[in-house]
Amino acid sequence: MSNEIEKDFNLGGTVESALSGQYELSVTKVFKEAWDCTIKHFFSFTPAIILLAILQVVIFFIALNMQVFDITSVFEQLAQTGTIPAGFMQALYIANFSYEVISAPFFAGVCLMAMSHAAGLKTKTRQITSGLQFTVMIIFVTLISLLLQGIANLLLPVISIYLSLAFSNAVLLVCEKHVRPLNALLLSLRAVNRKIFQIAIIYAVLMGLFLAALMFYGVGLLFVLPFYFHVKGIIYRNMFGIRLKIVTTNQHNGDDDQNNNSQVFNA
Known about the structure:
mainly alpha; single chain; 3 strands; transmembrane; 3-stranded antiparallel sheet
């Protein structure tokens, strides 16, 4: 005979502490923990990131080919005349926009995996699809975020950079807290504003790491990309907290023997 006992608890911050700024966000501690998570889950997490990258590249080139039928001629013209054909930059922008929106549910799945690592849980590659159950809301929140950033970029690029930081937790809020898209964007913005200086430093360092990784023929991205996702997961945990569930199974063998088995899951 076995009985299951379930208990929910919160790891890290809360929505209230995030909005009040009462959460810890040490730059050095975030980086150290993110690196530890990256090394610990490297072989189980990297395949999911590679799958996401392949998916995004495929979507990008499909979207680009639908607008520019002969990409090689574009590069030939660039090499011969030093000019880019009219409309090509717009095609690049649309292709970039397309891959970010279409792949958003899978991006969310990778973010959820990294968040689980920040909570001390293990994941499997198939969990890259865990964001698909929130597809509509994830695409909606991604669309709004990208549109606002695009408009801000036309006015003043620095505002667009700020919005990319301000909205960085919105997708996880939709998936983990089940917050509506507009509320998720607002909650993320308000929480980030409380410690915008630390967050700006963190993402500036990440950008520097991306550039350094590209200098080594992109090989460094195998470490920088999982590190980036783990940083996002740790920031989210410290800000808003992660809901977890402990399931304890009591198994009775005979009159006196009893075995307890406890497991922790994302709630």
